[in-house]
Structure to design on (568 residues):
């Protein structure tokens, strides 16, 4: 029951609280307004007025914020030492304030007063002899300046004073990387990441510059099991930065959805798509699709699979997406991918059946636009007459291009040249065909046509054999034809069949553009089978014989790897 006395006491207490709290709130608001005004003046480039405003912030009880503001403004005015006037007074008042001490060290180093900076650091340490903060601040600043040797000295002093550098793991890791001690840096970062998992980006930035021959040691250290989530994420980020998306996915794939892996997979998939690393992108999207099924993810996964040259996998993703999307969305997003996948597999009748089933819901112009896809399906099926029949429904541009391909398959190089000048899609096959047509002056070659026909039908064994035979017939393009055959063998893991072709190019066509490429690929094949000495000979031959080749930088990197016994 509320009595008059209780009510009076409650009213009095409320008044006391209001009297106590309101001035604090008003004071804090006033400080915020002063800081905002100083920032606005700084952003407007009114440096002199900003100096006055930041001094007002200091006077209002915010010395750390005020000094940082003065640092920035006086730096713009090229008067860095002017901050020291305020700092001398403030540090005496607050001798252990990290912001003030850090600013003091920065400014003294900025004006080249290194001895005074060292004295200021020593004074800070004397005041806090068992605190790692002074060592962390000074060593961190020195590392940012690239003065790794001096930072090392500071951290050695920390070890003697504190008994260990456990509290300075990050600085130790950065220092070792700065000194080029890559294995030691990886160990230090692994320890730091185990305790502070948010450091993945910092660890990646620190270890990314490691030279190629040192990366395997970093990998080995970061792969030691059990590896914390943060360590596995860091290794994945490093591999992506080193241009190894497949290895990056190996690290990310070990994460479980419960480890907040989905966001990591999503970032990786986007990066892989941008880098056109379609195989790893497909794997990441497949993992995401399994964790959180959705139509858009299925569409992206199917696209990645198609771009990776895996139409069968694409069809599986399309089937999943079809169950997740409304019919209209499926026709818009998935049908084009499905028809393309079926076409790549040479399943021409299935392409025609799916197109006929969806035609009533499609614009006639859209149906007509798929004539090229139907024609390619019949080409890959080996039925050129049916491909020509399909082209009667195609647009003029599509007809010209596919007709050019049919001409190439027939061995009519003149008509093929005319039709392939402006291809609708630049694929590896298009690039190879255009390169070949540009290299030879021949008007016809059934051998070349048969080789490209085998390639279109995904008969790589026949394609390689026929390109090699065509080299004897079309002499002015022989090194390119032999190189095409060798590339097909390598794609099928047939190094033993490719090496004689590279050897022939190097020995018989030493001035051809493919000669340097043959030396490089020959060396890589030798290294894959464990012949490091042979690989070194080929790479040295490339570097000495073709010093102007664009492949020389790659050859030098490969030479370092072959000599050290590392793996790329």
């Amino acid at each position: 029951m509320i009595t008059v006395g209780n009510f009076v006491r409650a009213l009095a207490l409320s008044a006391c609280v209001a009297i106590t709290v309101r001035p604090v709130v008003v004071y804090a608001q006033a400080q915020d307004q002063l800081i905002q005004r100083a920032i606005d003046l700084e952003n407007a480039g009114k440096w002199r007025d900003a100096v006055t405003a930041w001094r007002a912030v200091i006077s209002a009880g915010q010395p750390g914020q005020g000094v940082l503001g003065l640092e920035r403004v006086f730096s713009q005015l090229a008067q860095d030492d002017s901050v020291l006037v305020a700092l001398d007074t403030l540090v005496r008042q607050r001798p252990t304030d990290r912001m003030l001490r850090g600013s003091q060290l920065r400014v003294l180093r900025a004006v080249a007063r290194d001895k005074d900076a060292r004295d200021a650091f020593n004074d800070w340490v004397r005041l806090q002899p068992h605190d790692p903060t002074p060592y962390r601040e000074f060593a961190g600043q020195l590392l940012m300046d690239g003065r790794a040797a001096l930072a090392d000295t500071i951290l050695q002093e920390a070890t003697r004073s504190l008994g260990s550098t456990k509290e300075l793991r990050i600085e130790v890791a950065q220092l070792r990387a700065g000194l080029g001690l890559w294995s030691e840096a990886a160990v230090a970062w692994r320890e730091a990441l185990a305790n502070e998992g948010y450091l993945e980006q910092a660890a990646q930035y620190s270890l990314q510059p490691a030279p190629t021959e040192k990366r395997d040691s970093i990998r080995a250290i970061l792969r030691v099991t059990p590896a914390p989530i943060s360590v596995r994420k860091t290794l994945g980020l490093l591999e992506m930065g080193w241009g190894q998306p497949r290895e990056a996915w190996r690290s990310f794939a070990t994460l479980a959805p419960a480890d907040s892996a989905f966001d990591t997979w999503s970032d990786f998939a986007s990066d892989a798509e941008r880098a056109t690393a379609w195989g790893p992108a497909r794997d990441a999207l497949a993992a995401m699709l399994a964790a959180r099924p959705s139509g858009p993810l299925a569409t992206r996964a199917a696209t990645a699979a198609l771009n990776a040259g895996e139409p069968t996998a694409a069809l599986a993703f399309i089937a999943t997406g079809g169950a997740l999307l409304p019919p209209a969305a499926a026709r818009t997003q998935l049908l084009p991918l499905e028809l393309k996948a079926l076409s790549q597999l040479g399943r021409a009748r299935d392409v025609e059946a799916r197109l006929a089933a969806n035609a009533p819901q499609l614009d006639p112009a859209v149906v007509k636009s798929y004539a090229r896809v139907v024609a390619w399906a019949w080409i890959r099926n080996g039925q050129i007459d049916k491909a020509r029949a399909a082209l009667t429904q195609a647009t003029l541009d599509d007809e010209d291009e596919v007709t050019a391909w049919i001409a190439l398959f027939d061995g009519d190089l003149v008509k093929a040249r005319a039709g392939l000048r402006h291809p609708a899609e630049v694929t590896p096959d298009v690039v190879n065909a255009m390169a070949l047509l540009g290299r030879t002056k021949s008007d016809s070659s059934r051998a070349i046509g048969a080789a490209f026909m085998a390639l279109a039908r995904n008969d790589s064994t026949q394609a390689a054999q026929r390109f090699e035979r065509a080299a004897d017939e079309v002499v002015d393009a022989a090194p390119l034809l032999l190189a095409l055959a060798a590339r097909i063998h390598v794609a099928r893991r047939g190094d033993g069949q490719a090496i004689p072709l590279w050897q022939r190019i190097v020995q018989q066509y030493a001035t051809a553009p493919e000669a340097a490429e043959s030396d490089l690929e020959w060396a890589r094949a030798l290294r894959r089978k464990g012949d490091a000495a042979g690989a070194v000979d080929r790479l040295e031959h490339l570097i000495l014989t073709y010093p102007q080749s664009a492949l020389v930088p790659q050859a030098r990197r490969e030479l370092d790897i072959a000599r050290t016994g590392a793996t790329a």
